[in-house]
Amino acid sequence: MIHEKVDVLQRLVGTWEGYGQAEYPTIATTRYREVLTFRSHTDKPILQVEQKTWRLHTDLSESLLHWEFGFIRQIDEDRYDWTNTQNNGRVEVMRGRFLVEGQSMMGDFSTETFANDPRMIQAVRRLVMDGDQLNYSLSMATTAHSSLHIHLDGKLKRTISP
Question: The domain that contains 53 carries what CATH number?
Answer without folding.
Answer: 2.40.128.20
